[in-house]
Amino acid sequence: MSDTTGSRSSNTPPPGCPAHGSAVQLGGLEYQQTPSQLYRTMRRDHGAVAPVFLDGDIPAWLVLGYPEVSYVTSHDELFARDSRRWNQWPNIPADWPLMPFVGYQPSVLFTEGPEHQRRAGVITQALEGVDQFELARECQSIAEQLIASFGGSGQTELMSTYAHALPARAVLWMCGMPQGSEDTERLVDDLRISLDAGEGDDPVAAYMRVGERIMQLVKEKRDRPGPDVTSRMLQDPAGLSDEEIVQDLISVIAAAQQPTANWICNTLRLLLTDERFAVNVSGGRVSVGDALNEVLWLDTPTQNFIGRWAVRDTQLGGRLIREGDCLVLGLAAANTDPQIWPESHVGAENSSHLSFSNGEHRCPYPAPLLADVMARTAVETLLERLPDLVLGVDPSELTWRPSIWMRGLTSLPVQFTPAVH
Q1: Residue 386 — left, alpha, or beta (φ > 0 → left; ψ -120 to 50 → alpha)?
Q2: How far apart are CA 77 and CA 213, in angstroms?
Q3: Which stretches are transmembrane (predicted)?
Q4: Hey, which bits of 55-158 come out as E strands?
Q5: Which stretches of the chain drop beneath a pLDDT of 50?
Q6: Which residues, other chains included, contact 112 with Cβ-Cβ below 8 Å and sequence gap of 6+?
Q7: What is the pLDDT of residue 13?
Q8: Is 336 in a helix, a strand, or coil?
Q9: CATH code of domain 18-415
Q10: Count of other CB atoms within 10 angstroms of residue 166
């Protein structure tokens, strides 16, 4: 990892911060395959709040404990979302890799207090207008179209042909984009590139195109409203500007697309590789729900979330947190905290995980329910249409993306009997 701050090596603490002398680099090979092992080691060495270095040896705190993450997310007066509070901005280069996640934007993600309640309230009202049965029907229709596109071949790579495309199309349908149009397909592709760029992709250009197309959608819906999320946001008495609605729609779409795609794929991986499920899946739907919930505990799509910024000097998990320090929410580590799972057994029937975060800035209700409809419909429809679906490689050959933020496979190759239409 390059040291973009110049003079300080990763073993040298920032001035006035003795804890960062033993800080852990947040990244590297452990994250690709066995982050749970890394979290265990960090918890043993540092406790519930660990000093870490982000890209370029920028100091931060990783909150690993379930009670501590719950505390941070429910005390906005101590740990706030406006990243302009950060005490490290003098050390951050303009091309810092994490800038898209921490650079202040006028979106609901960075607002606080009454302004956050206003913006989040508009999103909640707009999402509450989504009929979950209608969404399930639409997701099934999208799933069947996608399966038809590869079903005759007897094999496919599910990340690219299915898991990413389905939630992208579904959330754009919720926002009022016409289904099946070339325009919508281009936007689906640009969303994928901006959130999950591959070799040769230009994520910045793709993100710009997403913003332009969503602005065009907002203008279209101002002129011709419909029964969709965008129109309901425009009609809300809170009176958001077009620019605010564009920012917040992009936040909603991004939050729905990539995490749901990884939730679908991580669940399919579990169903195809774990013998507890292999016997039962074809016999009924109960185990699909169990698998979806187990993934949120053990392989949650959003591993870590950056972040919160300390409003003033305070204590957390026995650490002195300075005003302006950055805290990374270790959602995956908190979900596997031995304090809440003393026998290291995760009960699939329990849904008090932190995968949708917690507190005022959690994923706005009813977004988790809508994500569940998308993921469940995607998994069930695939298993119904291709009942003899099996992995196309040995389970040991599946690899995780080298990301400390998202938990997702690089690919999920499968084989099945070609479907005849």
Answers
A1: beta
A2: 36
A3: none
A4: 58-63, 79-80, 155-157
A5: 1-16, 285
A6: 76, 80, 81, 82
A7: 41
A8: coil
A9: 1.10.630.10
A10: 26
> How is the chain split into domains, by residue range?
18-415
Alpha-carbon distance 43 to 51, whole Å? 11
Distances from the Cα of 218 to the Cαs of 176, 230, 233, 239, in angstroms?
A: 10, 7, 9, 14
Q: What is the pLDDT of residue 312?
A: 98
Q: How many CB atoms lie within 10 A of CB 1?
A: 14
The β-bridge partners of 155 are 415
For 95, phi then psi, to 5°, come to -100, 25
Q: What is the pLDDT of residues 276-325, one digit of tens each?
A: 776 555 555 458 888 999 999 989 999 999 999 999 999 999 999 999 99
Residue type, 102: V
CA angle 174, 203, 332 (to 5 degrees): 70
Closest CA to 92 of 55, 139, 140, 132: 55
* Distance from C-alpha of 106 to C-alpha of 171, rounded to nearest angstrom: 22
Q: Please give the single-letter amino acid code of residue 198.
A: G
Gap between the Cα atoms of 64 and 126, Å rounded: 33
What tokens were used for 271?
């169903």
Q: pTM for this one? A: 0.90
Whole-angstrom distance, CA of residue 123 vs CA of residue 127 = 6
149 contact partners, CB below 8 Å, separation of at least 6 = 161
The contacts of residue 325 (CB under 8 Å, 6+ apart) are 59, 60, 61, 87, 309, 310
Contacting residues for 275 by C-beta, under 8 A, at least 6 apart? none
Q: How many CA atoms lie within 13 A of 367 on its CB side?
A: 26
The two three-digit tokens of residue 398, written as one number: 């599946």
